[in-house]
Design brief:
alpha/beta, Rossmann fold, five-stranded mixed beta sheet, four-stranded parallel beta sheet, 50% helix, 8% strand
Length: 442
């Protein structure tokens, strides 16, 4: 794609990067076939190629974003399926993130939109505030159908996603869990924000599996939200502050007792953390350290995949439909590892038709774009239920929450199945499943 940025514009590192990305695009349109919003809407402006044209025009003209740009960029899920499909290697993720920042800085949204976004950006990254907000939403949950009929679809979506019970207090960081038996290594674990409150059993399962197989597990003091929620809303100040906090926390461990890996159990967080080097590339105080931290980040499935000698425990023979989170399969290019780990432990794995398409969660998308999110969720649920599995596994808390509210099939994180199959407790979501054939697996 030909671009016409001025030399003065190209002096800005963000514009220079956008120019490089735009020039890689050859207009082929392969991305339209795998873009969830284009598949649903058939609108060129709701495809990656269409959004690229909008972004190019907006940035080249150096003008404020308008309602048209905001509408179509907002509809993008950042699922990154287009990056998997693109034969030219267009780094759409960095381009759309830059566009979101430009929109946040130059476009004044309607007051109710600004208020909702501020609420999400302040409460979600803070575990204590998120717990309080969730408690309020739980109380208001019965009002969701009434609000939906009255046209308040975003508020209704937020209430529908609220948990049915009061969430536990967030677990503190600054802890070390020693390895059991012969020591294999030492890893850091991101406890994050939403997951540590909404589903603390996921990180607990990861700690048990890792310590059971010889790893010291460290939750460094000062670690927390990865920054992805605010990053994808264009709020770069808060996103980069979160990134710097995590870089500082994990770098202290790298420079101290050392870390073999920095583990994330939420694939959305892992995708953002692996990008810290890029996000902080222009910060002279953090650029090198951020790159060093990012290079150590691994999804928990990548670490478990390397454990060829995992311990086995007798659990029922179950059929698992593996729903690959977009941030894992497209963002991190981690595709086979979760399935191979579960298959090695004796679970029967099923791939999901249209597995490349997003479930519609996408961070805050299921609140900010509830209609499109619901359509994608229903499409995904139909594909999953068509497989008639015993359980659905997804490696991201957003996907788990999105899917679990729309099907009677249990939805769990793969690491909780691994924990169970190597001697840990049965995942709570599987309490109703009988023991069946509980012979040790070989």
């Amino acid at each position: 794609m030909r671009t016409e940025f001025s030399l003065a514009q190209l002096a800005d590192p963000a514009i220079a990067e956008a120019d490089k990305i735009l020039r890689a695009c050859v207009h082929c349109g392969f991305c339209t076939a795998t873009c969830p919003t284009y598949v649903l809407l058939g609108d060129e402006l709701d495809s990656p190629r269409g959004r690229i044209y909008l972004i190019k025009d907006m940035l080249e003209a150096d003008r404020p974003a308008g309602p048209e740009e905001a509408k179509h960029i907002d509809r993008c899920l950042s699922c990154l399926s287009c990056m998997t499909t693109c034969p030219s290697g267009v780094h759409y993720m960095h381009l759309v993130d830059h566009a979101r920042t430009h929109i946040a800085e130059t476009y004044r949204r309607p007051w109710h939109d600004r208020l909702l976004r501020m609420l999400l950006a302040r409460s979600i990254p803070n575990p204590r505030l998120f717990r309080l907000a969730s408690a309020a939403a739980t109380l208001g949950k019965p009002l969701a159908p009434l609000l939906a009929r009255a046209g308040f679809s975003r508020l209704a979506a937020m209430l529908r996603l609220a948990p049915a019970r009061l969430l536990p207090a967030p677990t503190p960081s600054g802890r070390v869990f020693p390895a059991e038996g012969p020591r294999r290594g030492r890893v850091g674990l991101l406890s994050g924000c939403v997951q540590r409150v909404l589903s603390p059993d996921i990180n607990a399962a990861a700690v048990r599996v890792l310590t059971r197989h010889g790893y010291d597990v460290v939750l460094p003091a000062g670690e927390g939200c990865c920054g992805s929620v605010t990053h994808h809303m264009g709020d770069e100040d808060h996103a980069l502050a979160a990134a710097r906090a995590n870089v500082t926390a994990f770098a202290a461990e790298l420079d101290g007792a050392g870390l073999d890996a920095i583990v994330s159990t939420a694939s959305g967080c892992g995708t953002t953390m692996k990008d810290y080097g890029f996000m902080l590339r222009t910060d002279p105080a953090f650029a090198d350290t951020a790159a060093r931290v990012a290079a150590k980040v691994r999804d928990v499935s990548e670490v478990l995949h390397g454990l060829v000698d995992m311990k086995r425990a007798p659990v029922p023979a179950l059929t698992v439909a593996y729903q690959a989170p977009c941030s894992l399969q497209h963002g991190q290019k981690v595709v086979r590892q979760p399935k191979e780990v579960l298959a090695r432990l004796g679970f029967t794995m099923r791939d999901v038709p249209e597995g490349h398409l997003c479930c519609g969660s996408a961070g805050t998308y299921n609140i900010l774009q509830p209609d499109l999110s619901d359509r994608l969720r229903d499409r995904k649920i139909a594909a999953l239920e068509g497989l008639a599995p015993d359980v659905i596994a997804a490696g991201n808390i957003g996907c788990i929450t999105q899917l679990a509210g729309a099907t009677a099939i249990p939805v769990v994180h793969p690491v909780t199945l691994v924990d169970w199959a190597t001697g840990g407790p049965r995942p709570a979501a599987l309490a109703a499943i009988g023991d069946g054939d509980a012979s040790p697996r070989t």
